[in-house]
Amino acid sequence: MAADTPVAGATPYHADGGPVGVLLLHGFSSVPGSLYGPARALADAGYSVSAPLLPGHGSTLEALQASSWREWRTCVETHFEALRATCRSVAVLGHSMGGALGASLAASTEVAALVLINPQLIRPTEAADLVEAAIARGEVLGPPIGGDIKKGGGRPPTMSHTPLLALRTLFDALPDLTAALPLVTTPTLLLSSRIDHVVAPLNGDALIDVAPHVQRVWLEESYHVATVDHDAERINAYVLEFLAKEINA
Predict the structure, then answer these.
(1) Domain definitions of the chain by residue range
(2) CA-based end-to-end distance of the chain
(3) pTM exceeding 0.90
(4) What is the mean pLDDT of each successive set of 10 residues along the chain, which is 249 residues long?
(5) Domain 13-246 of CATH type 3.40.50.1820
(6) Catalytic residues
(7) Where are the alpha helices (DSSP H) in the chain?
């Protein structure tokens, strides 16, 4: 397996604040650094903030290859309960796979508010088939998927390759998540990049079709990793306005 080095931004972010907590969840093969912007904006606004590093991420390809959706989902529950133990209410913000994890949590647990940024909510049939075919050929690594930004300045923090066995566990979990989307009744802010080369915007359509309280905002100047792209400051403002309205009003 190709070598890898620790990813910049792999350090979890935590800030003690007021009685409202926000759990921030990064995407597959990404790290908390992709969410430092909104995490700091939330902390500055007085929220208690937790942005954990999901199991297997941020260090070696072998570690990520050996991790799975079940482990990531358990990690999310653990950190959510830790916030809920000290906060009167907890919101969740998730990007990409983090959006899938956040939606899964909101479908089964009382979440005060939900923010989804380019979430992966349905099984991408073509990509999943390509992953299965590659694994059948004995391939275990694919090209990186976390560098989709519109502005220049280098690739966002992500792993150097995509461990396919771990990615398959995400794809395998998505049909059950899609079926559970009608159970997502919490107020939800959906931020969708108009052009996304990793997760098609139709994933957001799937949520809007079945969930009753979804507000969608289109991001016109960012690709998939919008939290570090041209719309980053707009995202922070949208999130703060939404949470103030839905939780702190």
Answers:
(1) 13-246
(2) 51
(3) yes
(4) 64 95 96 96 98 94 95 98 96 98 97 98 96 95 87 73 96 97 97 96 96 96 95 98 87
(5) yes
(6) 96, 196, 224
(7) 36-44, 61-65, 69-84, 97-108, 125-136, 164-180, 202-210, 232-246
